Amino acid sequence: MEPVFDAAGFSFGSACNSAASSADYQRSRLEMLSTFLAQLTIAYHEQAQWLWRESTRVGKQWQVLEARIRELEADREKTWAEAQRLASAWERQNRYIHQQNQRIAELEAQLRNGR
């Protein structure tokens, strides 16, 4: 008789093999599948641990980034307030200079007119 193959291509002997031989084959296949399942489970757990570590690392980086954004927003608000203060001071100085220039022009006109 010709050998019989299972779906994975493993030969389990001829169709007239004894029941003991078939049981040994089944036990061997079960051990192989158990080993494969154990390896797959280990790989799954390793990937899950890696993913957890990465998500924790990224989460910490995100918290640092959010804190930095808050700092920059506070700095921007302070800078904007300082810019407004400086603009107001510049406008006051500009008005004062303009008034002084007008006063100088008036005095020069009075000098020319002999007053």
Write a structural description.
The structure is a single chain. The protein has one helix at residues 19-112, and strands spanning 3-5, 11-14. β1 and β2 form a beta hairpin. Strands 1-2 form a two-stranded antiparallel ribbon. The mean pLDDT is 88. The chain has 1 helix and 2 strands, in the order ββα. It is mainly α and 115 residues long.
Features:
mainly alpha; 2 strands; 115 residues
Q: Percent of residues in helical segments?
A: over 70%
Count of individual helical segments: 1
Give the strand tally: 2
Radius of gyration: 45 Å
How far is the N terminus from the C terminus?
Answer: 140 Å
Which series of helices and strands comes N to C? EEH
Q: SSE layout and pairings?
A:
Elements: E1 3-5, E2 11-14, H1 19-112
Antiparallel strand pairs: 1-2
Summarize the structure.
The chain is mainly alpha-helical. It has one helix at 19-112; strands at 3-5, 11-14.
